[in-house]
Design goal:
This protein has helices spanning about 15-20, 25-35, 55-70, 75-90, and strands spanning about 40-45, 50. Helices cover about 55% and strands about 10% of the residues. It is mainly alpha-helical and about 90 residues long. The longest helix is centred in the last third of the chain and has 17 residues, at about 75-90. A two-stranded antiparallel ribbon has the order 1-2.
Length: about 90
């Protein structure tokens, strides 16, 4: 699928996504729940699923946790902060 979602865009429905990716609707539904838990999509029952305007703190928290568990090099931490803080500042 070549759809590039921008913040606020409505995503295709489950059937369109599942057919486009060749997976079951159940797999798409579970993936959307995970993306919603990370604050990346907003599921509006009866209205559709939308790309969130800003990622939720849950995503950043999980990325930081994964980063620290991997026993990071301090220079990588600076790069990580530069990427996220610059993006947040620009928003």
């Amino acid at each position: 699928m070549s759809h590039r979602g921008r913040p606020g865009d409505k995503l295709p429905n489950e059937l369109e996504i599942s057919e486009g990716l060749g997976v079951s609707r159940g797999s798409v539904r579970e993936a959307m729940k995970i993306l919603s838990a990370f604050g990346l999509v907003d599921i509006r029952v009866g209205n559709g699923t939308y790309v969130c305007k800003t990622p939720g703190n849950e995503l950043i928290d999980s990325l930081l946790f994964s980063f620290f568990v991997s026993n990071p090099d301090i220079s990588n931490l600076y790069e990580f902060r530069k990427i996220f803080e610059t993006d947040i500042q620009d928003a």
